[in-house]
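Z., the sequence and structure:
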Amino acid sequence: MELGIIGLPKSGKTTVFNALTKSWAETGAYSPSAEPNIGVVKVPDPRLEALANMFKPKRTVPADVRYVDVGAPPKGFGKGEGLGGQYLAHLSQVDALIHVVRAFEDEKVPHIQGSIDPDRDMSTMGLELAFSDLALFAIFF
């Protein structure tokens, strides 16, 4: 399974990525032209061990989850300019999205909109994704 981590700039996406993957990806340094951070985590499953003990296979392969920290949306995001092609290309490859929404205050990390409002931020991301879907749909029909 491949999960994409999305959210507005400075929302904590890479921090969540680092926590999930036990990585040390640099936070706050993403540029839209950079490649996403990718981490793979093996999923422990006691049922797999029980089945392996019963059937004695030559090898057992646990499931894994691939996390893709796609970074910040491109410049102009949330202002009606739409999502960039490279950003959408990364999102189109994943099975599901993890939306990180900022709900913390920190004077050292200013919010791109000037204030903390999780509802507004969720709506902004949702609308941009919906508009991108509509634009792709219109191309095919």
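The chain has a mean pLDDT of 85. The CA atoms of residues 3 and 97 lie 6 Å apart.

Let me know what you think.
H.
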